[in-house]
Amino acid sequence: MSGQRVNSFFLGNSSGVNFSIIVSPRDAETGKLQLANCSRSKRAGDWNLDVTPGVNTSKVTVSLSRTLELCLPNATECCPSPLCVVETLQVLACRGSVMLAQLLIQAEIFANSSFAGNVSENATIIPNQAFKPLGSCPCNLTAGACDVRCCCDLECTPDLQQLFSASCFTGVFGGDVNPPFDQLCSSQSMEYTPEWFPFLCVQSSLDNTPFLGYFYHGSTSTPKIPSFKIPLQTSPGKPFTGYREGDPIITEEDEYFTVPQQSMAGQCVGNAPVAYLHNFDVKCLTSLESYKEGLPHDVRINTGTADFIQQNVVYRAVTDRGKFITESENLAAEVLCQNVTFAEHYKFTWKDKNIEQINVTVFLGSLCDGEILTQRFTVEFLSLNSTDGEELFENPGYQAGKPVRAANLNASDPLGSLNIWQPAGRGLCASASYRPVLFGVDSYSGCILEVDINEDCSFLRGNVTEKLNALIQATHIGKRDNSSYTDLNDWVEIIRLDPFSSNVSTGGLKGICPDIPANLNIRIIFAKVGAVQGVPQQQILAVQISYSTILWQFQCGIGCKNTLSILPITASVQFIEVPAQPPPPVTRYQKIYAEFDCNRNEVCWPQLLYPVTRFYTGEPYSQCLAKGLFLAFLVLLAAITSNPWFSKLWNR
């Protein structure tokens, strides 16, 4: 046993059984234990024996009654050494003089390492490291022995220190933990000391040393973990002041209101936040295996003034699944199907910087295992003043991401369109659909036109021109998003530049056609002409359409057995921002100063005196100035001495 108490059990009926304990010393000659008898008691020395009888089992407890504290000076009844008790015990169970059972216990008990008494006033006190170094002798690495060359080691006797007193460790490692610093006036290091050192040195005691500056107890701040929450949160001290264009819409839980959207890579992101006043219409492909539900429709939305509104949700069933199921594998007789969301249409009604109402239409349908679903998500912002589905914007300027308004003012129906291609399938022009040009979004799209080797070049030019002109069904473009069809001043006429013709003859060769207008270039010039409630008002100033021609040549495949070749035709849209007002004309002073501008002329007259200016950093400025003044003095002296009147004065 190694503790003060140990338990054991006696099996059987304990009635009439006497238990006793003895301390059995070993025989000095033989090393064997002395024989025990049944005439002992339940106490032997510092040991006690307790028996708790039971029905068929009795619990036997052996305990030590002395303390296990180490002896202090002049103390008694304590442990003189760490190994306090080393004894052999015997526990006997006898009925009369007959021994029924015997238990042998070897006790090795150490003294307690904890101390519960009063702390002595002479205990070691660890100093504050901010004012006094903790280790006064860093080279003292070995406990109880002298470290060679460590002259601050108190365990080194004077005789041992004489052996290495001439080669003791120096510096902080050798015990000089508080050396005088160079800025101290009493510093003995006078090497490279400037003449003004006595005027700027530091008068301080060695207790205030810069070496202790490593211990700095300043205020600490816990790092803030970034989260997907808006940095401007609603709080009693800082109320929510409404949304601005592009701000993410916030829910009641101070999280983003998300709807699946397309990323820059073309993939759909399920947790993309909805931006205020930004419309979008996206399609995402999914299957039953990868289908995930979006944000619940019972989430309340922050209106912009710390109030919350509920979504008005209408559920409808999809009648024509063929518009959404784009691919279907061979289905087995029994397949797993699930009712999922086919489309979600969000309509936000807004006024100023607040959201007034949210209407959501959800189309549900059955999606089976092995089918590919094309989900559609649309978000549309409608002003509170809109009537009959036509929105009347409070900000008359264009907003980024909204379609550019086009009109055909020469026709009875002025409604026009400005589109680019959205290819599908093989990318042929015959199967390509259109998508509108969005304001502020530079676009580039195209399609493929199949051309026969015997194609007439004039017919090919007309066919390509017809395909390109089909994208622009308009004569004018609206200056603003709320341009009226009845006001001609609200529109700018489209400037059309005809394709360049070089009149190059192919000499009757087949498969070669020059001057094919394969590229359509749409340049839209706009400017910021003001702001409405802090939202920039952007206006279109001009629109230009031009064509880039190429030399088409039939591409011969393997063996030239195919008589069809391809002709890629493209359309690009570029938005160019210009200042709203023309820049002020150049003044006469600016025209004159341009002659001395070092960035515009090869000869830079202002740098004639470059060495005496502050831009020259090859030498100190004081030396450059002194040399410059001395040079000017020599020039002045030469001018004076070369004057005729100086020679006459000198002769006199």
How would you characterize this protein structure?
- By secondary structure, this protein is mostly beta strands.
- It has five domains: 5-110, no CATH class; 144-217, no CATH class; 247-383, no CATH class; 443-577, no CATH class; 597-651, no CATH class.
- 9% of the residues lie in helices and 32% in strands.
- The protein has six helices and 27 strands.
- It has helices spanning 158-164, 197-200, 457-469, 588-593, 621-641, 644-651; strands spanning 5-11, 18-23, 43-44, 47-52, 57-64, 83-95, 98-110, 261-262, 268-269, 280-287, 301-302, 308-309, 312-317, 325-328, 337-351, 354-368, 371-383, 406-407, 417-422, 433-436, 443-452, 472-473, 476-478, 491-496, 512-532, 535-553, 564-577.
- The strands form seven sheets. It has a seven-stranded mixed β-sheet, with helices on one face. Strands 10, 13, 14, 15, 16 and 17 form a six-stranded mixed β-sheet that branches.
- Strand 11 (301-302) and strand 12 form a beta hairpin.
- The longest helix is centred in the C-terminal third of the chain and has 21 residues, at 621-641.
- Mean pLDDT is 79; it is low at 228-239 and 387-393.
List its salient traits:
single chain, 652 residues, mainly beta, 5 domains, seven-stranded mixed β-sheet, six-stranded mixed β-sheet, 6 helices, 27 strands, 9% helix
